[in-house]
Amino acid sequence: MSEPAFYGLFVVGGLASFGGRVEPATALFLAVGVMGIQCVGMLSSMIYRWTLERKWSLGCLKLASGVPRLGYFLGMLAVPVLQLLVRASVALATVWALCGFSLRAQLGPLAVGVALVGVFWASLGCALTALIRSYRVRDFVVSLALTPLMFSAPTLYSLDQAPAFLQTLSCANPLTWQLGYLRACAAGEERPELLAVAASMTLAMAVVGYLSTGRMRTVSNEG
């Protein structure tokens, strides 16, 4: 849990400081960006969990013993999503303390939004683990994609004045839309278009992740 606290303390504390004080509006913008980074981290977390399931044939054993595929899939998501909510809470609490407890955010909608976005990235991790047999190829794909994913989206800065090519990449990045939705949740704004985009992406990826559990019956070797 130290990573979100360090992000909140040093990254948000440094970037949101003006004239010796932390600006709450900027701090909230950055805090949501930190939460987005934590959500993307679900990708690696789920790949690790599912790799163990494949390596030791645990997924195959559970499904063969009668565990429903939907129950297996939801069970694999539950603990990581709860851990994500705790990490997001740590980041927000750290930033809240930095702002002298003057930060204002809609906690309920924000928690729901973080869980929704986390399910997207966790489901993507499930799908990648089931579809890519080689852990070397999978690790290469993930390591190659993570940095552009996190920094072509407005995680810790606004892209309003960015070059055209970066704005184009940002529009194609799912994290951009998810951060917009999370920031609307934090501010208490009603943005049905952002909710629709975020929910649609999560639903589509969750279906892909669920379908990928079928391969856990037969795929058990890592190479």
TrEMBL record:
Classification lineage: Bacteria, Bacillati, Actinomycetota, Coriobacteriia, Coriobacteriales
Cellular compartment(s): Membrane
Species annotation: Kribbibacterium absianum
UniProt domain ABC-2 type transporter transmembrane: residue ranges: 62-183
Protein name from the UniProt record: ABC transporter permease
UniProt superkingdom: Bacteria
Pfam family, one: ABC2_membrane
Main location (coarse class): membrane
Transmembrane segments: 29-51, 72-98, 110-132, 139-159, 194-211
Lipid bilayer topology: Multi-pass membrane protein
Keywords (A to Z) from UniProt: Membrane, Transmembrane, Transmembrane helix
